[in-house]
Amino acid sequence: MSGHRISKFISLAAVAGLALSPIAGLAQNAANPLGIPDNINLLGSANPNVRKATAVVNGFVITGTDVDQRTALLVAANQQELSPEDLERVKMQVLRNLIDETLQIQAAETQEIEIDQAEIDQTYVRIAAQNFEQRPAAMDEYLRSIGSSPSSLKRQIHGELAWQRLQRRLFAPFVNVSTEEVNDLIKRLEASRGTDEYRLGEIYMSATPESAAEVEGNAQKIVEQLRQGGSFVAYARQFSEASTAAVGGDLGWIALGQLKNSTLETVVREMTPGQLVGPIAIPGGFWIGLLIDKRQVLMADPRDALLSLKQIQIDFAPDSSQDARNQQLETFLSGVEQLRGCGEAESGAAALGATVVANDQIAVRALPEQLQSILLQMQVGQITPPFGSFEEGVRVLMLCGRDDPQAASGPNFDQLMGQLEEERIQKRAQRYLRDLRNDAYIEYN
């Protein structure tokens, strides 16, 4: 779903009937296209950004309850308390999101696109299973417990489904990708074999020259919340205008050239997995990025290797002395070093008073990052350095087998064609949403 634009609505009611300073002779230029003086006097005390969080969009009422319940979803996903200022900022952004969502639903209805309640309910059930690991009734209860509601989430689902269906009707039939374009992309992928590709999360927030400062400030606040442990997926779904908003900002695996922006290419090239950057000014707005993972184009990723491991662990009695623990640990470490391969793991562990847990199909990437590089350098029968604590137990991993991954074949012709078509559909959709905003009648309460 195309996301939500940061926009600024200026009320003229506060200055109605008052004389304005003459500015007719002010020259206009590219840096100041509206010819606004550097020093202005605001007439009236009303701040257009301080208002009740309610609006009427082409006759449809967005209530304060709507805003509060959608905000509660974001705050819960964020898993941390927001300051009063941040909470108010989030509410204003959520109101903007709800306005866009309403415009998208209304546009779909104008095209006689109806989303059945049964389809919305099915999607809700799927979200409950995938994201909450709960039955719908349990998720209903959870949503109410955080101050939200099932109807709020279902409204968001309705908006996403309607917008996707509208894009397929209005734009998809007129998007053309030639066979030559796809074949050219396949050749470029082959030529880049072995180079790095990146799995990125993104949050894009559009801005005009007039709103740039406000949008950048909002984007910076989002980055601060993310650095404090906020959910990137939740913020992307609520605030991003990119087509990836519906999937939590996940761009999937891409090469740097697909970003089509030299600044972003330079920044992403230097990122490490898990790193967050932004906000970065790009044409049309600001970009926040998260590097989810990194690999080489059309090459097998060693971290996809499947390992057969035996974990050998020793536990310590809570009431034992420090000297006794040290002696027990020394005996354990000396003993596991003497083991002659996985065949002796169980008997050797039993003699040491240790336990063994086996796993025959675990991917390297599923293990803690500190252990990944160690295990990739090990041979069968070798053990990792010990890790853990006296309180939780000390353990080692013994490598008993390794199945290396096959070389990646890369996306096929149909997948690449679909990707190019989707990019062009989304560009048209973003322009269309801007037109909907420009034509909308929005009244704030």
Automatic annotation (TrEMBL):
Protein name (database record): Parvulin-like PPIase
Gene3D superfamilies: 3.10.50.40, Porin chaperone SurA, peptide-binding domain
GO molecular function annotations of the record: peptidyl-prolyl cis-trans isomerase activity
Cell membrane listed as a keyword: no
Signal peptide residue numbers: 1-27
Classification via InterPro entries: OMP_Chaperone_SurA (IPR050280), PPIase_dom_sf (IPR046357), PPIase_PpiC (IPR000297), SurA_N (IPR015391), Trigger_fact/SurA_dom_sf (IPR027304)
Keyword Protein biosynthesis tagged: no
Keyword annotations from UniProtKB, A to Z: Chaperone, Isomerase, Periplasm, Rotamase, Signal
Every PpiC domain range: 195-293
